[in-house]
Amino acid sequence: MLKKIIDSEALPSLSPIVIQLIELATDDRSSASDLATIIEKDPGLAMRFLKLVNSAFYGRSGRASSISQAVVLIGFKKVRVMALSLSLRDTFSLSKSKGMNYDNFWKTSLYRALIAQGFALSKPQPNLDPEEVFVGALILEIGTLMLYEAAYSEDIKMSFPEVSLPLEKVISWEEENLGINHREVGSLILKRWHFPEHLVESQRCFGSEALKPDKPILFNILELARRATEIVFGQTTDLYKLQQLVKKHLELEHEPFNETLSGAFSRVKDLAEQLRIEIDSQQDIVMVMERANQALARINSNMDTSLQKLLDHVSQYDQSLTRISEQMARGRSEVLQNTLDAVAHEIRNPLLAIGGFANRLANQAVEEDRGRQYAKIISEESTRLEGILKEIMEYSRAYEPAFGEKDLVWVIEKVLDEFNDLFRKQDIDVIRDFPQEPLRVSVDMNGMVRVLGQLFKNAIDMIDKAHGRVSVCVRPLWQSGQVSVAISDNGRPLPDKIRDALLDSNLSTKSFDRGLGLPMARKIIEAHNGRIELDVQEGHGNTVNFYLPTSPNPEP
User: Fold this and answer.
1) I need a surface site. Which of 124, 150, 312, 489 has the fewest CB within 10 A?
2) What distances in angstroms separate CA 550 from CA 128, 279, 492, one per listed residue?
3) How confident is the model at residue 399 (pLDDT cuts 50, 70, 90)?
4) Nearest to residue 41, comparing CAs of 24, 26, 20?
5) Burial track 330-342 (b if 16+ CB lie within 10 A, e otherwise)
6) Mean pLDDT of the chain
7) Domains and CATH numbers, the chain
8) How far is residue 254's CA from residue 131's CA, in Å, rounded to a whole number?
9) In angstroms, what CA-CA distances link 220 with 96, 140, 169?
10) Given this model, what pLDDT does residue 346 score?
11) What pTM was estimated for this model as a whole?
12) What does R_g of the chain's alpha carbons equal in angstroms?
């Protein structure tokens, strides 16, 4: 196969003009006029070269009117990049094939080159040239085309692996069916085309090998850019894992990482036009958003399973507290905390990765198109899931109240004051029915403020009509040693899932939907040795009534 590739005159090769440009652009003795003279030998190349220099891709204020002027404006290294980029698309067949999607190959290559260039610009080093990085990424999988052209049977060509498949699967198929992989072919071809040795070597080094600490930063960037295009166009969706790798090897934080990926979609159009590659960046954005949405759905499903197991652990832990020693309780608490941390890592980080990337990518989408609609859906869903996760994580942690004697009426008034603006804005009257004398109760101040705030917010959410009403009634029940707090509204009936979240101790992930915080409110009341009741009357509103002991401090 190698002999066929190297010896066959029928196989495509770079034009002599491009080979000369590649060599001359790296020669310190050459001048702008030397490069211009070579470019002008090919009228088609010269015209496209000048058009690309003046395109929005380079964003220059002045326009170059001659090849010599264009060479001076962009510099020798960019000349090599542009000449190679412009010629590669012409070097290989562009006809449709059952086994090779050439358009998809070049589209993926161009995005990979732009992403790699973005990484290089974010990681400036004296020996790292962003333009050379662009070239290395553009031709990273060039051996695939050579290998396809040299395939000895139509059956092999028709079963050729898709460009979007993970590299490991492609390499495995090639070695099994052809006895050689396209990276080996690529290194031979680049050597034949007189490419610098480090670009030739970058073909031979891929996968985890390319990310080893002793490898050049160029190899790191090319491998990470390759994995990024697998995320964007392939079948993998582990964006968070890629973010971690980029942070480790390039010291690039998540936000600039997202900016680099999304920026490729804004830069690709003008360059693709000059390379005569058919790219619809808006359609690509929609495709990426669809995959992000699918990944989010998988996270949602995994989150349901993982968090339900966690809630079951919490329930068992809470029930066992009254039957085990303090030392055993502490040990179980540590196990539960470790479980919490594992859940947070497995769910929250991928969730934030997808949400952040979608929001950044939405900025590249046209106003009101499907890309922006997807971004909105993804953003809202990731925010909702993050809210549920936060509520469950907080609920599952041990609640340790700090009890102190307080005037319960004063605590309620304090929380009502915080809602004054919202009550006024939504035209809601607040009716107070409080005892005249202070009603001192042993409570955890922070916990009780949270309970009251949640119940007031929930009452407001149920009112969707003008002249709404929220009533707060406080009654001492001296005979039973309790105090009763009733919060009523004249809104629509509480949905079943909210009633379950407030009353049912057998929680599921649905109990925390929309981040209502009601399970935590119930947990706090129960930690005060109190209880909670609910009265829902169709057409008359809802009443949440909770009872607290007036006896000495309850045990934490």
Assistant:
1) 124
2) 72, 72, 33
3) confident
4) 20
5) eebeeebeebbee
6) 78
7) 2-279 (1.10.3210.10), 284-396 (1.20.58), 403-549 (3.30.565.10)
8) 24
9) 33, 13, 20
10) 59
11) 0.67
12) 33
